[in-house]
Amino acid sequence: MAERTIIHTADAPEPIGPYSQAVRSGKELFCSGQIAIDPATGNVIEGDVAAQTTQVLKNLRAVLKAAGYDINEVVKTTVFLVDMNDFAAVNAEYAKMFDTSKPARSTVAVSGLPRGVRVEIDAVARKSKPGF
Hints:
- There is one protein chain.
- The protein has 132 residues and is an alpha+beta fold.
- The chain is built from 2 helices and 6 strands, in the order βββαβαββ.
- α1 runs parallel beside α2.
- 29% of the residues are buried.
């Protein structure tokens, strides 16, 4: 059985429920969904869905970094949107982060997200280097 390691960083928002920012199991890292919370203030950022997506991706990158992973090691994401009309704006910001390494992805419309945000993204990353 693979060892389980809980990942936590002050560079991403504190979880708003009984869960971890991420869990590493073997070579895989399972990142909880990130929303547009500024980790310095604990508040949802001001701005449209593009600004929220940028903050979500910053938070996700911080969790990956804390676990010793790189954005290019993300193999799967799930994007949750409260309005599918935001799809193009979210894609534009998402493409900036995943410009060379495009993970598999699902996008799901939901009736609501925590703290009234418009987008949430979770991720799975995998190390390919031997001996990790």
